[in-house]
Amino acid sequence: MPHGNIHQGQHTERSKNTNAYLVGGGIASLAAAVHLIQDADIPANQIHIIESGSSPGGSMDGAGDSENGYVLRGGRMLNFSYLCTYDLLSMVPSLTNPSKTVKQELDEFNAVPSNKTHAHARLVSKGESGPEILNVESMGLSWKDREDLLALAGPFQTEKTLGAKRIDECFDKSFLQTKFWYMWDTMFAFEPWHSAVEFRRYLHRFIQEFPRINTLAGVDRTPYNQYDSVIQPIETYLKAQGVDFRYGK
């Protein structure tokens, strides 16, 4: 997808008189700022990001040090279907090598066989002699479980018809004891009482991961944690362009 001067000329006069105020310093605002600069031709010093915290990234944060440990509120299951995210990262220079984009850095990192995701212990149970790795090649779903999954994710079910239903109202109790459920809920922090609508959205979003849910082999990794590898390069780029960051507001 081309960027940069695609709209230049058409919006130049209007962009000169535009001030963009982005509330929150999460990746949504950071992405918007990049596109405002590269696609809408808005001067960077007229883009203002207002964040109540002391750093950007929202829930895609990272804090700590080697002595006291690090805190990361969550990770993203990056994969080939993250078209908008990868498009964004193709517009931002890498911190370690400015001649490359963050997307190129990510691609090169994941091209190294030893860096590829391949989990060997997706589930661990309490065995007689201590922790034991469970065999998760089979997801443990009954035919009824499969029918219920298809019914929830299929075209005859909608978010409107689901309404406020909980996940555990859409399945038998035995479903919540399957290896599939334990793998799925630990990946996305689901609980049985959470929204069935949200569960359905995740089924649609990550259905391509079903064949490799036991290893997570479809997940792309970043060289460092996602705050350092994604958020910091975007923040650094935006500050270099002249974007106005206002923290503690």
Automatic annotation (TrEMBL):
A Pfam family this chain is assigned to: MCRA
Gene Ontology MF: a single term: oleate hydratase activity
Superkingdom as given in the UniProt entry: Eukaryota
One annotated GO biological process: fatty acid metabolic process
Protein name listed in UniProt: Oleate hydratase
Organism: Lachnellula hyalina
